[in-house]
Amino acid sequence: MGETRKRGRKPKAPASTTETMDFQYTSASNATQTDYVAAQNDVFSAANDSVATAAAAAKNDANNPPPARRGRGRPRKSEAGHMEDTEPHAAASPERRPYQNGAVVLEPPTQPVAKWESVAARVVPAMDAVVKVFCVHTEPNYSLPWQRKRQYSSSSSGFIIGGKRVLTNAHSVEHYTQVKLKKRGSDTKYLATVLAIGTECDIAMLTVSDDEFWEGVSPVEFGDLPALQDAVTVVGYPIGGDTISVTSGVVSRIEILSYVHGSTELLGLQIDAAINSGNSGGPAFNDKGNCVGIAFQSLKHEDAENIGYVIPTPVIMHFIQDYEKNGAYTGFPILGVEWQKMENPDLRLAMGMKSDQKGVRIRRIEPTAPESHLLKPSDVILSFDGVKVANDGTVPFRHGERIGFSYLVSQKYTGDTALVKVLRDSKILEFDIKLATHKRLIPAHTSAIPPSYYIIAGFVFTAVTVPYLRSEYGKDYEFDAPVKLLDKHLHAMAESTDEQLVVISQVLVADINIGYEDIVNTQVLAFNGKPVKNLKSLANMVDNCNDEYLRFDLEYQQGVLVGR
Fold first, then answer.
1. By C-alpha distance, which of 103, 111, 191, 205 is closest to 158?
2. Residue 171: active-site member
3. What biological process terms from GO does the record include (predicted)?
C-alpha cells in the first residue's frame, strides 16, 4: 500500500481527471457511456493501376495538363463527416513534383509505400475468436436493500481462449442476470455461464455449453509483455455499428495503474488510442497476432487525448492460473502494510540506514494481515524475495525501466510465502511471510452477494460498503459523504476479518420511533453497553435481549432508546 488518497473540495467543472469503464449500455435509462481502448491506424494501399495511370498522364502535354474531372451530383461525405470530391484520391495518382519551366512534372511512383505496416493483416486469423457479449444486469438497491433496481442491458466484447473458455471484463458482467455471446458473422446468440469474476483485475471467465459455439474457431494465443512503442491492434464491437471493429495504436507507457473497477493497483499498459464504448473486454494483439492484453478503461480529461488502458498478459495469466489452481478466483495478495518513502537523507540517518542501504519505512500494518505479528511499524523494507527496494519504493523492471515493488507482490498467489528483509534497530532481519488478500473495513465490492440488512422498531441497520456510499451520495461520494464515514473508508483498518461498519441507514417512521426520524447514516457503536462488531452480532444481541428497553449508542454521543 502506498500513499493515501487526498480529499478536497468538489470540483466545479467535470474537467477533473477521471478514469472510466467502457462497456456500451443499450438500455434507455442508462444513457451514460464511457470510453474504450482503440486507435485508428493511418494505413493505405496503393491501387494496382497507379503505374498505368501515371503513364497515361505522362502522355498529356506538360504545358497543358488536362483539367481534373469531377463526378456529377452532390459531393459525398466521408466517414469523418467532411465533404469530399468524388474524384480518385491522390494516393492512386502519380507523384507530383514542383514546377519545372512552368509545368508540373508527373512521375510514377517506383514502389507503393505504406505509412504504417498494417498490424491488422496479421490479426485476421484471430478475429474469428472475438465475440460480442450481451448482458442483462440487475443491480441491488443498496439504499433499499430489500429490493433490486430496474434491469438494464449492455453490450461489450470478449475473446475465446483454450479450454472452451471466453474472457471479458468483470464490469461487463457485473450483477449479471443473463449473459449471451455471438460470434463474428453469426446470427445466433448462445447462452453463457459465468465461471469466475476477478473484481480486482477486472477480468471475467465465461463458457458456453452448446458445442456448436466452438466449431470452426481457434482460441487466441497469448504473447509476451510488449515493449514501449510496440504496435497493438484492438479488436472488438464498439459503439457506431454492429460489426467487428479493428483499430490500432502503440504502447506508450507501462506502469502500475489504478484499476477503477477493482479499486486496486496492478500492472497496466497505456496506449495512445481513443477508446469507444463496447470495446471493453476486447483483445489487444501484437504484430504477430498474439494477444497482449484486454481493453478495459480510459482517461477522460480536458487536457488529455487518446489515452487508453489495457490489462497486460501477466495479470491475465495470473487470473487464469489462479482459477485453474484453486477452481475459483482467490484474488491478488497484498503485503498488508502502508509505507513511506525514504528519500530524505536525515530520515535515513535517523533510521540507522547505511549509505549503501535503500528501502521504505513501514508506517502501519493491517491487523488482519498474516505478518502483523512479525513486522513492526518503523521497520525498513530492504528487499522483497531478493529484489532490492529503492528509497522511492521502486524495483528494477526491464532495461531502463523501474516499477513499484507492489508488482512483485501481485505476481504471487494467495497463500504463497515471500522472503522479506527488513532493517530494525540497525539490525537486518529476514522473515518468511505468508501473503493473503486484502480485508477492508469498508469493502469496495460485495461480489454477487445481496446487501444484508436488519430492521427493528423501524430502524434500518446495514453494513457500509463502497456501493452503498455510491448509492447514497452518487459517484462523487468521496466529496459528499459524511466526513467520518470517509475517514474510515480511506484510513481505518479492520481489527478482525469479520468486522463491519454498521450504521442506521434510515428510520421508517412509526409511533415507536417518534423523535428519531432525522437519524441517517450514523454509525452504531454499541448495544446495551456491548460493542457492535458486525451486523450479525448486532442482530443476535437484539434477538437475545431480555431487557425492557433497547439502547443503541451512536457516534456523536447520540443515543436511541426504544421499548420492546
1. 205
2. yes
3. proteolysis
Question: Active site residue: 202, 287, 379, 553, which one?
Answer: 202
Number of H helices, E strands in the chain: 9, 34
Does 207 have pLDDT greater than 50? yes
Q: Which residues contact 15 (CB under 8 A, 6 or more apart)?
A: 301, 302
Residue 340: predicted pLDDT: 95
Provide CB contacts within 8 A for 330, sequence distance 6+. Answer: 322, 413, 414, 415, 437
269: CB partners within 8 A, 6+ apart: 226, 232, 251, 253, 254, 284, 292, 293, 309, 310, 311, 312
Amino acid at 518: D
DSSP H or E run through 488 = helix 483-491
At 57-115, the pLDDT tens digits run 444 444 444 444 444 444 444 443 443 333 334 344 344 444 343 444 444 444 444 44
Say if residues 384 and 405 touch (Cβ distance below 8 Å): yes
| Domains of the chain, start order | 118-214 (2.40.10.10), 230-326 (2.40.10.10), 337-435 (2.30.42.10), 453-563 (3.20.190.20)
Residue 131 near residue 159 (C-beta atoms within 8 A): yes
- Which of 11-20, 181-190, 255-264 shows the lowest mean pLDDT across its residues? 11-20
Q: What is the pLDDT of residues 404-434, one digit of tens each?
A: 999 999 999 998 999 999 999 999 999 999 8
Is residue 280 part of the annotated active site? The answer reads yes
Q: SS3 of 248, please? A: strand
The answer to whether residues 554 and 525 touch, using CB atoms and an 8 Å cutoff, is yes
Catalytic annotation, pick one of 118, 156, 280, 298 = 280
For 75, other C-beta atoms within 10 Å of its C-beta total: 13
Cell 441491488, residue located: 140
Nearest to 493 by CA among 441, 416, 558, 562: 441
Task: Check 128, 154, 155, 171 and give the catalytic one.
Answer: 171
Q: Regarding predicted confidence, which is higher, 333 or 21?
A: 333
Contact by Cβ (8 Å): 222, 291 = yes
Q: Which residue has the cell 470495446?
A: 279
